[in-house]
């Protein structure tokens, strides 16, 4: 094979590997917090609302930063912007693991900004470079995100309980993920550095903000984020209140994260074969609702419900990301829709974890929070049915 042929092979290969490794950073830095949340609360004397805010803070960062990510890409290009996202994630993980409360919260906010950039720009990258493989590659990087998040959740408590270790060591171990991604993504800075084509869209204006279809995609994406991050934050506490040990609760939390990866094995090809995604959207949200009811009514089967919850929310996450690309007519509109869906969606989700923690304290249990999440799933089905139509933003 000639050097020129090798280069042509290596560049797409490295691009795909880099894309998957960026996807690996979308959840693990946040989901790894849940299993050691109680350890952090005791060590730092955090109240329920403050503990919930650790999940809310990156969601707020997503909401604030998402509309501006498309402008960042237009100025510096997709590849350089994604590189900056990885740098921010690595720096945030390192900072929050130092120990002080201020470093924990500031570092978490920085992580949120980095993940927001990656979340918004990855669908645009797929639309530009892999327009015929959007659903498949969305499933692939969602699969990677779920597997790495599962590992981060599963090893958090064992690392935190090692002699001389603690919660900060468990959170700091995640830094290896963005560092590896940075090393693999670096060649893209010289190979594909052109900015996104098109005229810049105002952060809160433009065609997508006046489209009913765009709001349906946004509602579907945002409500899934609300249910997902509420449960990711409080699932270990729900399980320990039900009688499980902290280690077992952490393991079940890891199972739920691993299950988010399962739809990535097959959902992309299935979506590609469907005329539209209306029925499958309602179906996967139904799985999430059943899992939440199961946690409430039959906590003894928590392993089953954790797995079903991960499968349902993982499927919905993949569909939500795929809708961003499938419902847009071009790369520019895909980036704008991504910014809108993630800004509004995460803003909707941001207040939920601390409010759910407060509701738990006021009601003395998890019944009311779980029933509210089931009701949110019903609204999500309606948004998914409309967003799943085979149409594009006009």
The figure for the number of domains is 1
Order of helices and strands: HHHHHHHHHHHHHHHHHH
CATH first level: which class?
Answer: Mainly Alpha
The count of helical stretches stands at 18
Give the end-to-end Cα distance, rounded to a whole number of Å. 46 Å
Largest sheet: none
Shape: globular
Compute the gyration radius: what is it?
20 Å
Q: Give the full name of the CATH homologous superfamily.
A: MFS general substrate transporter like domains
**Uncertain regions spanning at least 5 consecutive residues:** 1-10, 194-204
CATH topology: Growth Hormone, Chain: A
The percentage helix is over 70%
Mean pLDDT: 85
Structural class: mainly alpha
Annotation, overall tally of beta strands: 0
In short:
By secondary structure, the protein is mainly alpha-helical.
Structural commentary:
There is one protein chain. By secondary structure, this protein is mainly α. The protein has one domain: Up-down Bundle (Growth Hormone, Chain: A), CATH 1.20.1250.20. Helices cover 78% and strands 0% of the residues. The protein is built from 18 helices and no strands. Helix 4 runs antiparallel to helix 16 and helix 11 crosses helix 16. It starts with a helix and ends in a 7-residue tail after the last helix. 57% of the residues are buried. The N terminus is likely disordered.
List keywords for this structure.
78% helix, globular, mainly alpha, Growth Hormone, Chain: A, 394 residues
Indicate the topology:
Elements: H1 3-23, H2 28-31, H3 37-44, H4 48-76, H5 78-96, H6 101-129, H7 134-160, H8 167-172, H9 176-185, H10 188-191, H11 212-241, H12 246-261, H13 267-273, H14 278-297, H15 302-326, H16 331-350, H17 352-363, H18 367-387
Helix pairs in contact: 1-7, 1-9, 4-5, 4-6, 4-16, 4-17, 5-6, 5-9, 6-15, 6-16, 7-12, 7-13, 7-15, 11-12, 11-15, 11-16, 11-17, 11-18, 12-15, 14-15, 14-18, 15-16
